[in-house]
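**User:** Once you have settled down, spend some time on the protein underneath, comparing sequence with structure tokens, and judge whether sequence predicts the tokens.
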Amino acid sequence: MTNQLNSVYLNFCKRVLTDTVYDDSLQERFFTDPKGISESEMISVLNLKADVPSTVGNFWPQRAHTMIGLKRLDNLQLCLEDVLQNNIPGDFIETGVWRGGASIFMRLLLKEYKIKDRTVYVADSFEGLPKPDLSRYPADENDTHYKEDFLRVSLEEVKNNFKKYGVLDGQVKFLKGWFKDTTKNPPFEKLSILRLDGDMYGSTWEVLENLYDKLFSGGYVIIDDYALSGCRSAVNDFRFKNNIQDPIQTIDWSSIFWKKCTKPIEIGNTLERVDKYLKNIFKDIMTVYSERPDLQTAFPEVHVGDLYNLLIWSGKHGINEDVRLMANLHCTSFCGYIVKDQTCKMHLEILIIPKHSMK
């Protein structure tokens, strides 16, 4: 689908979005005329190695229009081009856009391929992140993102950024407000790209709960903040609740994505095996935890984790003595699980599942 000129132009746009052109005069020329930069000039920029933080997106930049980094923009392009190549119907949405860079790139790609029957939805409060709603999402108890003024970017500024790239047009729609309101009755029927960048448990859960069913089979879910415990827990809880076993793929240190499949895989038998095994062993695992300083250091608090990985792991490798049950640690509505998976470099993870699964 991508020809050489498409590829050069889109890759150059990524460098502009991440502020890695390293030539202010060239960048200003681009903003004056986005199509006015010659191919040779773009290639000369692409031949320069981008700095590591801008590649992996592990800092908050002062000038860039996105903080997700080049690697995540590459992933976004891969997903976008795949749904277009395979005629997966549906619009694109990003929930949590900061200065708008990733959403701008989605519109740039549609424009480059002359796609006129899809819309990019740009969903954000444009006032920063919400205060944690602990009555609904206790996992957000220690979240302080709402205090960060750096994350407050106005709708006017984001629109101006779209205008700089020449893509503030009718194929871009802005959904201003909290996700619990803007995603409940959205102005679209189908999605092919669902990109989440909400940081928190509540913000992530609300988007998945309200929009996942609108994602067409063959479309992509992209989770920008999976490295953050609140976001990760919401994703894992949602996948477990809805029996989603589409394989998670890692993008970089922070982000993951998966392609939505047509039919979920039944996991009832695996759950039964897990429950039966756990009920028969380690009646008082708190004693084990109290005698293991290494576990206490690694996991000072129990949090909602990845039951999905436990189920897949147990299904592939069988239930064995590397599974350990931990009950009621700092959590009244869940039971905790520690998994020591020898196939994953002896990595230990805390995993949580609802108590009803133990009945």
